[in-house]
Design a protein that fits this description.
Layout: E1 3-7, E2 10-13, E3 18-25, E4 30-39, E5 46-51, E6 57-59, E7 67-72, E8 77-82, E9 91-101, E10 104-109, E11 113-118
Parallel strand pairs: 2-11
Antiparallel strand pairs: 1-3, 3-8, 4-5, 4-9, 5-6, 7-8, 9-10, 9-11
Amino acid sequence: QAQLVESGGGLVQAGGSLRLSCAASGSIFSIDAMGWYRQAPGKQRELVATITSSGNTIYADDVKGRFRVSRDNAKNTVYLQMNSLKPEDTALYYCNAAMYNRGSWRNYWGQGTQVTVSS
């Protein structure tokens, strides 16, 4: 069984930084795109950033220049470096990955890690 486990969330003041990590584990044959989504209270889940296995990235407009997504393919891990955090970045952050497991590609989600930015 494949799974994603996030870490690194917490409480930070506006202007501060946090680094999220997400490690994939289990019977994984291959991983394609990995990324981060977030969901604030009362809002829909939205894309933050994604990165392909070859390193191509996509960012949401409101995090460009402040957040950086990266991955370590040898460790099956994706990271999100968040700088210049704003109160509006407060949300539950979810890791996402397309993984080949037990003969098929599936979309996996982590359990979420809370990021709270105080003003």
